[in-house]
What we know:
The chain has helices spanning about 30-45, 95-105; strands at about 15, 20-25, 60-65, 70-75, 75-80, 80-85, 90, 115-125, 130, 145-150, 155, 165-170, 175-180, 190, 205-210. The protein is built from 2 helices and 15 strands. A hairpin with a 2-residue loop joins strand 1 and strand 2 (about 20-25). The protein has a 7-stranded antiparallel β-sheet with strand order 1-2-13-10-15-8-3, covered by helices on one side. It is globular. One of its GO terms (molecular function) is broad specificity oxidative DNA demethylase activity.
Amino acid sequence: MIQSSLDLFDPHPQRLARHTLLLPGFALPELEALLDALRPVLRAAPFRHMHTPGGLRMAVALTNCGALGWVSDENGYRYTPIDPVSAKPWPALPPLLVDLATRAAAQAGFDGFVADACLVNHYLPGTRLSLHQDRDEQDYGQPIVSISLGLPAIFLFGGLQRSERPRHIPLSHGDVLVWGGEDRLRFHGVLPIKPGVHPRMGERRINLTLRKAG
Ligand code: SIN
Ligand code: FE2
């Protein structure tokens, strides 16, 4: 059978591991509403470069919305209800985002996921995120739901040990990736973003990770 070029774009969910599902383009139908909802969040809590507990400036700029937000400083990594920059609570989580994450999680087999935190990462070309585990949340029974916007990225998806060589997963604008269950503590990261200009988002990648942190 001759493959049509349409088959090269595969919009079907892809199971990457037992409890990991990639939903290509899942966020695209609501993209403009999502960007509208994000604008006031970024005005109230602008992106900032945090420092690792060891004092290194993180390459990724980040901010949060939701009841809890992730912060890093000389006192360590943690979730806090207050934005240390504005000294106010983090902006509320847009209901549209909570709903999108609940639906994506359900597709991956995690029913009843209700996010209370959204970490927003900003990558410029050249920015990378080194391998790490997400372990500051209370309940590892709850998945992580990641929404990618803008420039494409290669997501590194490793094992439960840092030494395990990670797989390379291409993530594009609008893709949603859900990992939980036995995959919840897999090491993951992002290769340096390749130079480029995304037609809708410009010269950047933005990643939203929705979590049940508290
Ligand atoms: C993260 O691990 O917090 C972000 C992952 C990503 O940007 O795709
Ligand atoms: Fe992470």
